[in-house]
Design brief:
183 residues, 4 helices, 20% helix, 27% strand, elongated
Length: 183
C-alpha cells in the first residue's frame, strides 16, 4: 500500500467521523460534547480546540474522570485518567499521574489541555460465563459414567507410575481374585 492510498483511507475516515460527535460551547469553561457535560480545567498554550476534540473523541473516553489532550506533529492525542473515587481507578492511571504523563510522554513544551468529565459513564460489565450457561442454543448433555468412580471399583486397582522427572501416569490393572484358602 502506498502513501497516497493510506492518506485516502484517513481522509475517508475523517469524513465519516464528522457527523459522529458534536461540540457545543457553553458559558465559561463548560462545553457539551454529544450532549455530555465537560469542563475545561487547563488550557496550556491555547492547546484546546473543541472541534478537533470532537473529531478525535471516542466513546471509550466517557469512563474517565479527566481527559488530557496534547498536540504533537499537528496531531491531537487524548488520554484518560481516573479520580480515586472511581471504581475503575488504578494507581498508574490516577489524577496524580497527569503531570508525569505530560513530562514523560508528551513533547517538551507542547500545547495541551485538561478536561474534567462532569458525568462519568461507567461501562456495563458483562458476565459472559452466565450468558453461555443460560443460552437455550447451547446445552451440554452429560452422560452418567457406566463405571463407578475408581475408588469404588472392587475388581480394579490403580497405581501411580513415574515416567520422568516431573511426569507421572496412572495405570489401572485388573485385580486377581484370590482364593479364600491362600493368605
Amino acid at each position: 500500500m502506498n502513501r497516497a492510498k493510506i492518506q485516502e483511507y484517513i481522509d475517508q475516515r475523517e469524513e465519516q467521523r464528522i457527523d459522529l460527535y458534536h461540540y457545543e460551547e457553553q458559558s465559561g469553561n463548560d462545553f457539551l460534547l454529544n450532549g455530555h457535560q465537560y469542563k475545561l480545567l487547563k488550557n496550556y498554550r491555547e492547546g484546546f480546540d473543541g472541534k478537533q476534540l470532537a473529531n478525535r473523541f471516542s466513546n471509550i473516553l466517557n469512563k474517565y474522570d479527566y481527559i488530557v489532550g496534547d498536540w504533537g506533529y499537528d496531531q491531537l492525542r487524548l488520554k484518560g485518567f481516573y479520580d480515586p473515587d472511581n471504581p475503575l481507578f488504578r494507581p498508574d492511571q490516577g489524577v496524580e499521574t497527569i503531570e508525569d504523563y505530560l513530562y514523560e510522554d508528551c513533547n517538551f513544551g507542547c500545547p495541551y489541555f485538561i478536561v474534567r468529565n462532569c458525568d462519568v459513564r461507567l461501562p456495563k460489565r458483562r458476565n459472559r460465563r452466565r450468558r453461555r450457561e443460560h443460552s437455550p442454543a447451547i446445552r451440554e448433555r452429560r452422560r452418567k459414567l457406566s463405571q463407578p468412580e475408581p475408588r469404588k471399583r472392587r475388581h480394579q486397582s490403580a497405581k501411580r507410575v513415574k515416567v520422568g522427572n516431573h511426569q507421572q501416569k496412572f495405570v489401572i490393572h485388573q485385580r486377581v481374585k484370590r482364593n479364600q484358602n491362600e493368605k
